[in-house]
Amino acid sequence: METRELICIGCPLGCMITVQMEDENVVSVEGNTCIRGDKYARKEVTNPTRIVTSTVKVLHGDKNLVSVKTKEDIPKGKIKDCMRALKNISVEAPVAIGDVILENVVGTGVSIIATKNVEKQ
Amino acid sequence: MLLYDLVIVGGGPAGLAAAASARENGVEKILILERDKELGGILNQCIHNGFGLHTFKEELTGPEYAGRFIEIVKELDIEYRLNTMVMDISKDKVVTAMNREEGLFEIQAKSIILAMGCRERSRGALNIPGYRPAGVYSAGTAQRLVNMEGYMPGKEVVILGSGDIGLIMARRMTLEGAKVKVVAELMPYSGGLKRNIVQCLDDFGIPLKLSHTVVDIDGKERLKGVTLAEVDERGKPIQGTEEYYSCDTLLLSVGLIPENELSRGIGIEMEPVTSGPVVNESLETSIEGIFACGNVLHVHDLVDYVSEEAKTAGKNASSYIKNQRAKGNEHKINLIATEGVRYTVPKYINLEQMDDNLTVRFRVGGVYKNSYISVYYDGERMLHRKKAVMAPGEMEQIKLEKTKLQQYKDLKNITVKIEEE
């Protein structure tokens, strides 16, 4: 049996939640005040995911950088690989909000999209 | 002299939403003055997500949230000038501004909305001893350098202050390859959202030291390290708890101050607690026809509420410009913040001019668990709402209904306080 301690992010209360795990399965969730805490804890211990936001170099634009994000959340364990994948790429201006910058980032099936408009210089 | 119905000082989230709202309420000649080279304000550097859950029912990044409002302003064909700095505003609403193309110029406005936002508290405000080496930045400056200019301020980082900007920058610097050694917080609790503590610190194993502060800065040319110490209940460093951290960068995330030099210049009455103007139910300052909204009025934690507040200011400015305001200001009601409530916005209500509903925003002074927000009409308790938790970092609000205030005869004071029972 493995014990995991989490802080719930659902509201400012920030309940300390204790999750008991048997192999990959959740045995019990304790310490949460509401149902949202239970849901959060189960997802966080079995499949934690995050939206990753960063910037990518722009060529010939009115700005040097365009801000980007993963279109959907990706596994938490892939954040660093995702950042590495963005390190050496650049895009040609113009760029519009929602433009796909990189498809299927580190094999997650999720695209990197622009979150800012950059005009051609 | 240029003539406009409405001049809005600042093209950030507050200014944009105020402009859109004024136009939708029929104001024709609107001008937004923005000192940066683009609209959107500080949202442009806030590339993380989590914006707009209330307004758009989805999680946007800062630039995307700003982008939505910039689109609206452009669709509504609202005029704006970039790279333009407002130098002075007079009581009779003459705005003196300057930019490189036009030099110094004057605008006569019928109404003005102040939407200048806020500024970060700096090292000088903290009196941290030590030399003044390179490498000490406010968190927001570092955020702009990394996210907009493309420069990394340093490699080994200590962050003082656990407000949201500090937490967000801890993650951002880490993702960009820096080593964030520790985040120190003077208070015994963090001023940031739980979500940010988990996703910006815990995710990357960055320690958060509560009740700690920086007591020394080491390095002459470039920062070499800082000394942290634990503090007692009064915030004074405890001798013997000093710990040295080598680092080349110190980020300060130690609070925001509304940027009100212009407001003071006009002679507007100020509220010492918020460092923003005193406003009435219409978000109108002590000078008729000059309104304020967003972080220049009081520092918000959610941009959604800034947009909402700015919408109200835009609408009220439009009623003022079109001379459509309800007549009379006989019945004035004071809003009194006490016992745990630090301030309220607005600070008073002209009952005749109040809309059917009014949102009153406020902050509490400490962390309260299982306590009540209580509202008294003169001596009588009219609202008693239980909250599982309240903290200084989270803005609270209550709604007032005009009909209820009218029913209460000769109401003079509305008191907002926190009660344990």
TrEMBL record, chain A:
Protein's recorded name: DUF1667 domain-containing protein
InterPro entries for this protein: CPE0013-like_sf, DUF1667
Pfam families registered for this protein in UniProt: DUF1667
From TrEMBL, chain B:
GO molecular-function terms, A-Z: oxidoreductase activity
A Pfam family recorded for this sequence: Pyr_redox_2
Ranges that cross the membrane: none
Superkingdom of origin organism: Bacteria
Residue ranges of domain FAD/NAD(P)-binding in the record: 4-310
PANTHER family xrefs: ANAEROBIC GLYCEROL-3-PHOSPHATE DEHYDROGENASE SUBUNIT B
Keyword tags: Oxidoreductase
InterPro entries, per database record: FAD/NAD-bd_sf, FAD/NAD-binding_dom, Metab_Enz_Cyan_OpOx_G3PDH
Protein name: FAD-binding protein
